[in-house]
Task: structure prediction
Amino acid sequence: MMALLLRDLRLAVRAGGGFGLALAFFLALVTLVAFGTGPEGGLLARIAPGILWVGALLASLLSLDRIFALDWEDGALDLIATSPLPLEGVAAVKALAHWLTTGLPLSLAAPLLGVLLHLPGPAQGWLALSLLAGTPALSAIGTFGAALTVGVRRGGLLLSLLVLPLYVPSLVFGADCVRRAAEGMAPVTPFLLLAGITLGAAALLPFASAAALRAALR
Amino acid sequence: MSLWEYANPTKFMETSGKLLPWAASAAGLTLAAGLGWGFFLTPEDFRQGASVKVLYVHVPTAMMAINAWLMMLVASLVWLVRRHHVSALAAKAAGPVGATMTLCALVTGALWGAPVWGSWWEWDPRLTSFLVLFLFYLGYMALWAAIENPDTAADMTAILCLVGSVFAVLSRYAANFWSQGMHQGASLSLAPGERMDAAFRYPLYLCMAGFVLLFVALVLLRTRTEIRLRRLAAIEARERMA
Result:
């Protein structure tokens, strides 16, 4: 499992576009939103929680189609499937690698972008925390979507259509957590619900992903 | 004699062929009676006026939008557990019907909302979850269309349907958490004080029965089409081999 994780991380870093691309996309998106709405501070602060969370969703969506597609094309996925590691483990490791290269850097960089959008001080910490707690679910869901579309040519758009509705609960609770923190209310309840979704997704979705991979490889 | 006999396509075609005209004509009659009763023979609501008559399409289609997904869920489970092709094809057949029901519920809701709430669209939890449900239907149908191998497609969509059901329920509760709605509560509650007056309720029951029958007839028809398409593909493949 470690070997697979290290291999995926190394591929993501060396092939370019692992860490950097998602972050750059996130930054570009936030800049574009500011251009789109105008530079008025109050408005930006009000929509910042939603924008930052939607930005994180879209940024993690970007690299999903690479999770299995490249391994599928060069045949590595068949080798991985015949290895002693169960496919459930493969799916979990792939999701973890995806999170380490997108979700984690996004969560750490998000407060910086929060400053750009005039997000009030106490909400910054909750933004990073909620993204840290919520993005693993996005990676697990995304891995599931990637497993469903693994054999599909030009599956990128289909993948987005499948995965985005599944992101709804995480987005609702994550953005609500930050919004409550920004407005000075207690953000703990949505945070706990968000963490619950992540734990449930991390526990159950690898099995669904493995079932989908088995169907694709049959 | 057991239910699983109908998993045999020949047996299914035989029985569904006999059943289909009955289901279709029953659906037509019930819908004509229910909608006619609802539209022409019920009083107008004292506050909403004639716009209340949207009820007779809105409520049954909304109900069938959810029930169609439930039926797909059961059919997908049967496919995953017992590998009956008819079951997978029935789930495939129900997808577009359910999506249409969802769209009908959304559109009639907008038509009803415009005069009564004063807006075509509100970000109300129920409306939003129906929009999400519609996206689920679209994704489900797109996945069926995208995968070439029919067995793989059946597997993938069945798994998607299972996972999607969990997330659809989650989204429903997340949407409740996210905004307070304008939608009224249960209209068909069994408690006498809360439910609608009998003048509205009985034609509504009839319409609901009509839409259930319509759904059954459409799914039977579409499943038969899918089975014939599958047979055609098999014949073509055999001829290419020969």
Chain A has a mean pLDDT of 87. Residues 2-217 of chain A form one domain.
